TrEMBL record:
<keyword id="KW-0408">Iron</keyword>
<dbReference type="GO" id="GO:0005506">
    <property type="term" value="F:iron ion binding"/>
</dbReference>
<feature type="binding site" description="covalent">
    <location>
        <position position="64"/>
    </location>
    <ligand>
        <name>heme c</name>
    </ligand>
</feature>
<feature type="binding site" description="covalent">
    <location>
        <position position="113"/>
    </location>
    <ligand>
        <name>heme c</name>
    </ligand>
</feature>
<keyword id="KW-0732">Signal</keyword>
<dbReference type="InterPro" id="IPR002324">
    <property type="entry name" value="Cyt_c_ID"/>
</dbReference>
<keyword id="KW-0813">Transport</keyword>
<keyword id="KW-0349">Heme</keyword>
<keyword id="KW-0479">Metal-binding</keyword>
<dbReference type="GO" id="GO:0020037">
    <property type="term" value="F:heme binding"/>
</dbReference>
<feature type="signal peptide">
    <location>
        <begin position="1"/>
        <end position="20"/>
    </location>
</feature>
<keyword id="KW-0249">Electron transport</keyword>
<dbReference type="GO" id="GO:0009055">
    <property type="term" value="F:electron transfer activity"/>
</dbReference>
<dbReference type="Pfam" id="PF00034">
    <property type="entry name" value="Cytochrom_C"/>
</dbReference>
<dbReference type="InterPro" id="IPR036909">
    <property type="entry name" value="Cyt_c-like_dom_sf"/>
</dbReference>
<feature type="binding site" description="covalent">
    <location>
        <position position="68"/>
    </location>
    <ligand>
        <name>heme c</name>
    </ligand>
</feature>
<dbReference type="InterPro" id="IPR009056">
    <property type="entry name" value="Cyt_c-like_dom"/>
</dbReference>
Length: 135
């Protein structure tokens, strides 16, 4: 008897987990934005924290969140995956800044990141620094 009541919930959970786009994406978006302050609090104190939250704020204003979340893979890799892949060196930061502005593909899969030609390089740099701080 209990199983009959549980079945719809289990089924909808499976359905949500299996469905990659649409509603599921919106849910993740809500979850990620409510998690954002928690992630910021984990960033090192001081100047790094100020820089990181500036990058986080810039990311919030742009279209990045359509394709990226901090710890969930959407269209693009989770920022934490990106942070795990690249050391926060100047060379890597510059490379990723160019990538965000010019767009690109082939590092994480077949899907390409849209170019952001209007994005000022300094802003892109704050964003990348924030992403790479998410270790
Ligand atoms: C249309 C979806 C989309 C949007 C919008 C988008 N990205 Fe991406 N992003 C991707 C995909 C897909 C990849 C993986 C590309 C690859 O495989 O090389 C990626 C990769 C990245 C990487 C890692 C690049 C590498 O070479 O490893 C960074 C950093 C990044 N995105 C940051 C951003 C930032 C910052 C923004 C907002 C200005 C943004 N993305 C907007 C889809 C997107």
């Amino acid at each position: 008897m209990r199983m009959r009541f549980l079945a719809p919930f289990v089924l909808s959970a499976v359905f949500l987990a299996a469905c990659g786009g649409g509603k599921n994406t919106e849910k993740k978006e809500e979850a990620a934005s409510s998690e954002a302050p928690v992630d910021n609090s984990m960033v090192k104190a001081g100047a790094a924290e100020a820089a990181a939250s500036k990058g986080a704020a810039l990311i919030e204003q742009k279209d990045c969140k359509t394709c990226h979340k901090v710890d969930v893979k959407l269209v693009g890799p989770a920022y934490k995956e990106v942070a795990a892949k690249y050391e926060a060196t100047d060379a890597n930061i510059d490379m990723l800044v160019d990538k965000v502005i010019a767009g690109g593909s082939g590092h994480w899969g077949e899907v390409a990141m849209l170019p952001h030609p209007d994005l000022p390089k300094d802003d892109a740099k704050e964003m990348v620094k924030y992403i790479l701080s998410l270790k």
